[in-house]
Amino acid sequence: MPFFVPKKAMKDFWQTSQRKISYKSKTLVMGILNVTPDSFSDGGNYTSVEKALFQAERMIEEGADIIDIGGESTRPNSKKVEAAEEIRRVVRVIEEIARKFDCPVSIDTSKSEVALKALEAGAEIVNDISGMKFDENIGKVAAKHQAGIVLMHLRGNFETMHSQKIQDDIVSEVILSFRNDIKKAFNFGLKKENIALDVGFGFSKSFEQNLELIAKINKICEEFSGFPVLVGTSRKSFIGKILGGAPAENRLNGSIAAALACAIHGANIVRVHDVKETVEALKVVDEIKKFL
């Protein structure tokens, strides 16, 4: 039986602080906009407001449904950023995008102070890689604004999340973690329709487990069928390994393949660097899915 999902109560929208986003009619594309100097793929490319705004406009024109803005890199060996610096990086960008475009903006942060300032600036979704584990107050902030929230699976803290001992049964581990995170979100005052779930590709998982989660994503989607499931495989290192050590900028084809595999087996949102190519590929998959 799916978790918390009586079929008669199923909804087909994700509630943010500003709108309802349908996630059943097509696979949604979340465009990645890192305003950081050190992200693994595009660090340093969009550190000015002007460059970030240009990239956001480009992704929206290419078909992005959501723009996800991050001010702190979470790649392996990255350094933690103080909240004040993260706020400095993201708030003006969010304000300008929210003012200029009618496109949902997500803040990629695990800090409650950053989430608060971002929501006040015009963001409507909090994308928390820690699933409220690094800073529980982020759940309170999201609930106060009735924002959308993405709860991602990982283990450990900021410094150890990429060096955790590998669990034997990764699918069961992710499912149990999601159950606990959802209960915690409910306790903070978030509603079911506010919550999306991210399995956390590349975080606290082995090379093989990343592939296993893609192959078995349907099990997680079925278990939590009342929640949109988000996947972020774009340009990840496990794709580079499959492609013979290809650097991040040469992982487009592998990234699209992973996104399509997830989408055809139930994932509702894909978080990507390459919007145009992914949107076009997903149009084909979404048409095929009508006959499943």
Question: Can you describe this structure?
Answer:
By secondary structure, the protein is of the alpha/beta class. The chain has a single domain, classed as Alpha-Beta Barrel (TIM Barrel). It has 10 helices and 10 strands. The strands form 2 sheets. The protein has an 8-stranded parallel barrel, surrounded by 7 helices. Strands 1-2 form a two-stranded antiparallel ribbon. Helix 5 links the parallel strand 7 and strand 8. The model is unreliable at 1-10 (pLDDT under 50).
Fraction of residues in helix = 40-55%
Question: CATH homologous superfamily?
Answer: Dihydropteroate synthase-like
CATH-derived architecture: Alpha-Beta Barrel
Regions with little confidence, pLDDT below 50 for 5+ residues: 1-10
Instruction: Give the C-alpha Rg.
Output: 17 Å
Largest pleated sheet: 8 strands, parallel, barrel
- The average pLDDT score comes to 91
Coarse shape = globular
Tally of helical runs? 10
Taking the alpha carbons of the first and last residues, their distance comes to 21 Å
Strand content bin: 5-15%
Task: Annotate the secondary structure layout.
Layout: E1 13-15, E2 20-22, E3 28-34, H1 49-62, E4 66-70, H2 83-100, E5 105-108, H3 112-121, E6 125-128, H4 137-145, E7 148-152, H5 170-188, E8 195-198, H6 207-215, H7 217-223, E9 229-231, H8 237-242, H9 252-264, E10 269-272, H10 275-289
Parallel strand pairs: 3-4, 3-10, 4-5, 5-6, 6-7, 7-8, 8-9, 9-10
Antiparallel strand pairs: 1-2
Helix pairs in contact: 1-2, 2-3, 3-4, 9-10
What characteristics describe this protein?
globular; eight-stranded parallel β-barrel; alpha/beta; 41% helix; 14% strand; TIM Barrel; single chain; two-stranded antiparallel sheet; 292 residues; disordered N terminus
